[in-house]
Amino acid sequence: MGIRERKEREKERRRQQIIVAAKRVFSEKGFNKATMEDIAKEAELSPGTLYLYFKNKEELYASLSLRILQYLHIRVAHVNKEQGLNALEKLDALMDAMYDVYDFDPLIIINMFHLQSSETLKNLSDELLYEIKDLSRKSIGAISTIFKDGIETGHFQDRHPTALADIFWSLFSGVVLWEASKKIIDKEKDYLKDTLKTAFDLFRNGVVAHP
Question: Please, which pLDDT band fits residue 35 given cuts at 50, 70 and 90?
Fold first, then answer.
């Protein structure tokens, strides 16, 4: 292994060290109360080191979303590539994929949904903002393909596939955020997956083309 490769590997290891520490701090204190100094302390690094990797707290917070978006894109792309499934079976596989995406990291996916509806995006570097937008676009595009194929085969109602993909994603994110907020008030109330199943069943019944 060359010197340059070792340096790049060390740089990535340090970056992941910071991200892991940030996740712990954001989980414990929330975004507003957490500081870069808190994160540096958790990572056992100097605050100055953090700024070598992330220009501000917002960028570090947003970087946590990339893993979820990458996983989302992989799972949806896998559904699209599955052979021998008709459109309804692919929709069912897509719904299963959404459960997997949530289980992959519930805290970060909730943070990601908050991020997408906040002013935080305005404080990100152009590079990070492009990466988030690109992954989001690819994932929605892959979901849209499932609906497009279903419309063409007559399984789904003839609606714009991108609109159906947006509605499906909004349904998923809305239920996750609403159930997460209810759980903050009462930790005993954890009905997320049951509510998601009901929402997905209703969506499925609504999108299916009837003779």
Answer: very high
From CA 59, how far away is CA 121, in angstroms rounded?
8
Q: Which of 186, 41, 70, 79 is nearest to 135 (CA)?
A: 70
Q: Give this prediction's pTM.
A: 0.83
CA geometry: angle 158, 197, 209, nearest 5 deg: 20
Could you report the per-residue pLDDT of 105-124, keeping only the tens digit for each? 888 888 788 776 667 777 78
d(CA 198, CA 171): 11
Tokens of 117: 């509806």
State the sign of the Cα–Cα–Cα–Cα dihedral 114, 116, 164, 133. negative
Separation CA 154–CA 205 (nearest Å): 14
Q: What angle do CA 133, 137, 142 make, to 5 degrees?
A: 150
Q: Report d(CA 159, CA 145) in Å as an integer.
A: 13
CB atoms within 10 A of CB 98: 23
Q: What percent of the chain has pLDDT over 70?
A: 95
CATH number of 57-207: 1.10.357.10
- The domains of the chain are located at 1-54, 57-207
Q: Which residues pair with 16 in a beta bridge?
A: none
Domain 1-54, CATH class in plain words: mainly alpha
